[in-house]
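Database export, one record per block. Field names are fixed; values are copied verbatim from the stored entry.
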Amino acid sequence: MVKISSFIIALVLVGLVASGFGIFMGEMNNNYAVSDYDNSTFDGFDKLSELTKQVEDTQNATALEVEPTITDIIGGYFKSAYQALRISSASVTTFGEITETAAEKSNIPHINLIKGALVTIVLILIFIGVLISAMVKKDV
């Protein structure tokens, strides 16, 4: 059975936590108001329209169409493979544009060298991952 005194103590503790959180949020709003920031600096990172176009291209490339002959089916496979390569390269280009915008907005010296090194490291890790995956699946 719950006593009234423990219920009142719990109610006071919940009130303290809620008021502390309210004070915290009020101070965050006073010190870090959204209106202090210029949203135009983030326009270079807005790639929603490009990503939407890539999604539409993917939907069009993967749409099932009834094709009557075997040559049309083989041609469809090549067309789909080409579309997949084109979409993959477009996504890499989008990533490159975002990193380029970040590099321009940062004041780090030699950022292009650092960016090139990071891309190289990622490619090496992917290559090593593919090699390890191939070796693990190989029967010894």
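Remark 1: Residues 1-37 form one domain.
Remark 2: The mean pLDDT is 75.
End of record.
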